[in-house]
Amino acid sequence: MRILRAGAICLLSAVVFVAGCALNPGPADGVELHFYRGEVTPNAGAWEMRPCYSRRSRVLIDPQGVLAARYAEQAVLPGLPLYMELRASADGEVQQLLLVGGDSRACAAELDGIFLRAAGAAPDWAADLSGDRLEVRDQSRRIRFRFRVAQETSWRGDGFWSGSLKTPDGKSRDVELRLTESRANDSGCRDESGVWYGLSVDMRMDGRRYRGCGRYGDLTRAALAGRYSRVLVSGEGPQRTTALELSAEGHASLTQDMHDGTPAVRRDGSWRWLSTGKLMLHFIQRDGQDEQQLRLFSRQPDGTLVQEGRVPESEGPGLRLSRD
User: Fold this and answer.
1) Which domain holds residue 194?
2) 25 located within any domain
3) pLDDT tens, position by position, for the chain (324 residues)?
4) What count of other Cβ atoms lies within 10 Å of the Cβ of residue 21?
């Protein structure tokens, strides 16, 4: 069973569905938590994270000591960067670890369109949960089923999904999947390669029990959301400022200010990450008036967005927008 193998990306191959998002949990004890992922390194008694697809580092605060404990267990050598997925407050105070293990290559594993991926060994199984769809694969029996499931919450607060189906031969099959998030003192879950997960999964299907680890997906949407900009400056000062804002809900706005006394131009629409690894912007309004426009961007390793294809002459070729 491998969801993310240290030193190499080894994601379970799967059919993907349109997913919900579990990366913006509600406030815990009045503190709004945010999802962060990237390489974590100890730095002079503190902790520093280099987020995936970003040139800027952020300082993490570890008052409970959970980050330090997991780093000590998982790091190959003290001081080396270690990939982590975690939840923290806006000021960087770590509240919960979700995954610890691997290196920067883990950033490419984004599980687009999947809410949760789970996997286990003995038997060798995997499952992808997306909305009300659960696809289960039992490699030991060479079977695959797609269930429509309903979500509940157990008395312990765990996520719980259940459903049933009838196969073409008339047999009924039932499935139940329980997701448990580990807390500070919990042991969590480990895969065969030693990567630690803060999500444990217990699934039952046809009277059989399947145990394994889980990982939240749809990480591209979380990674791309934010503000990007570029300021073109001459000896006389700013000549053109371009700013792009992408929301986690899929809204996009592009503003261009020519600094020539005319009002800034604003376009509004939506954004979508394509299976080709490109960002597509579909604008439907310009300054509140209907106007259709499509733009395509590639994403560089440092998170910079580079516009491709035909662009307005006023913008010049290769518009590059860096995350603020």
Assistant:
1) 116-219
2) no
3) 556 443 333 333 332 222 233 344 444 556 788 899 999 999 988 999 999 988 889 999 999 999 999 999 999 999 999 999 999 998 999 999 999 998 888 998 889 889 999 999 989 999 999 999 999 999 989 999 999 999 987 666 789 999 999 888 888 999 999 999 987 667 889 999 999 999 999 999 988 999 999 999 988 887 898 899 999 888 778 889 999 999 988 999 999 999 989 999 999 999 999 988 899 999 999 999 999 999 999 999 889 999 998 766 556 567 899 988
4) 16
Backbone angles phi, psi at 138, to 5 degrees: -110, 100
* 44's tokens: 């002079």
Tokens of 256: 């261009």
Structural domain includes residue 193: yes
Region of residue 68 (phi > 0: left; psi between -120 and 50: alpha; otherwise: beta): alpha
Q: What tokens appear for 94 in the block?
A: 């770590």
DSSP reduced 3-state for 122: coil
Q: Are residues 275 and 310 in the same domain?
A: yes
How many domains does the chain contain in total? 2
Question: Which of 251, 243, 256 is CA-nearest to residue 287?
Answer: 256
Structural tokens at position 128: 């992808």
Q: List, in order, residues 6 or more apart from 74 with CB less than 8 Å away.
A: 6, 82, 100, 101, 194, 195, 196
Other beta carbons within 10 angstroms of residue 58's beta carbon come to 15
Same domain, residue pair 287 and 215? no
Instruction: Say if residue 185 is in the same domain as residue 233.
Output: no
What is the residue type of 168? P
Within this chain, do residues 205 and 237 fall inside the same structural domain, yes or no? no
